[in-house]
Amino acid sequence: ELEIGSAVVRRQFAKFGLKMHVGSATKASKTEAVFFPTPGFFKLPTLPPSESSSSSLPLVTKPDGGIITFCKHFKYLGNHISYSLRDDFDIDHRLAQASSAMGSLQHFWTDDAVNIHGKYL
Predict the structure, then answer these.
(1) What is the reported pLDDT for 97?
(2) Residue 24 contacts residue 66 (beta carbons within 8 Å)
(3) End-to-end CA distance of the chain, in Å?
């Protein structure tokens, strides 16, 4: 069904003058797809680890043999949309970014030359 659906989407994009940037065996795909399963589709122990962002099974489109890769987390307008439709990945990513930013200011917080009032501002 996904192969048929990808061909339909590709034809519709072409009608509007848009191009789907599919990959090949030697070139990576610029177009990524996310599979949003129904609740209970995966059993919890069989979920893939969340560290990698791409799955190892690309979708092969029939007409020209192009490859569309699937990802588990898609960044759209600064937010990460996860295949599970939960915000856990996005929240963890934002907390990691904030922690990194605060960590890079550690020398500022411990510097005695900066007065305490300046640190509160």
Answers:
(1) 92
(2) yes
(3) 56
